[in-house]
Specification:
Pfam families: Hc1. The chain has 57 residues and is an all-alpha fold. Helices cover 91% and strands 0% of the residues. The longest helix has 29 residues.
């Protein structure tokens, strides 16, 4: 569950930047959103590998 909380925290940390980018058209916030989404992708990939390893043992 620790990994799940890690993803939740990451998503929640991006909420303000999503608001700034989509509602206020702040371009710098868009850059932060893109970086956060890349981080989310990387964490997700790590979790997928971890789950696969646990499944195969």
């Amino acid at each position: 569950m620790n990994r799940f909380n890690e993803i939740k925290d990451l998503i929640m940390s991006l909420e303000a930047d999503f608001d700034k980018f989509y509602d206020k058209k702040n371009q710098a916030a868009g850059t932060r959103v893109r970086k956060g989404m890349q981080d989310l992708k990387n964490v997700s990939q790590e979790i997928r590998k971890e789950v696969q390893e646990i499944k195969n043992t």
